[in-house]
């Protein structure tokens, strides 16, 4: 999955925050509260996101309805993996990242890795 631009990220956030599939109109309404945006711009962004594999779409009458192709967390993990792979030293980057974590994040990661090793 390719990375996302600023508007694509906002559109994806609107979809991830939704309770179910959203039409172009519903996404446009959600985003227009932040700043003026043309309906056709939102339609184009959703079409591009569909082409990139970020969203699924289905017909609902005459309109398309859109849903994220992946959960927010899964997409974020894939983007992090792509970034790590592109930097040439994933272990070094991870080490620097881990050193910058706060105590709560470190404890969460330790517990999660411990459960993974225990098979839970």
Automatic annotation (TrEMBL):
Protein family according to the UniProt entry: Belongs to the BlaI transcriptional regulatory family.
UniProt-recorded name of the protein: BlaI/MecI/CopY family transcriptional regulator
InterPro entries according to UniProt: BlaI_family (IPR005650), WH-like_DNA-bd_sf (IPR036388), WH_DNA-bd_sf (IPR036390)
TM region positions: none
Keyword Transcription among UniProt keywords: yes
SUPFAM superfamilies in alphabetical order: Winged helix' DNA-binding domain
Any single Pfam family the record assigns to this protein: Penicillinase_R
Tagged with keyword Transcription regulation: yes
Keywords: DNA-binding, Transcription, Transcription regulation
Cross-referenced Gene3D superfamilies: 6.10.140.850, Winged helix-like DNA-binding domain superfamily/Winged helix DNA-binding domain
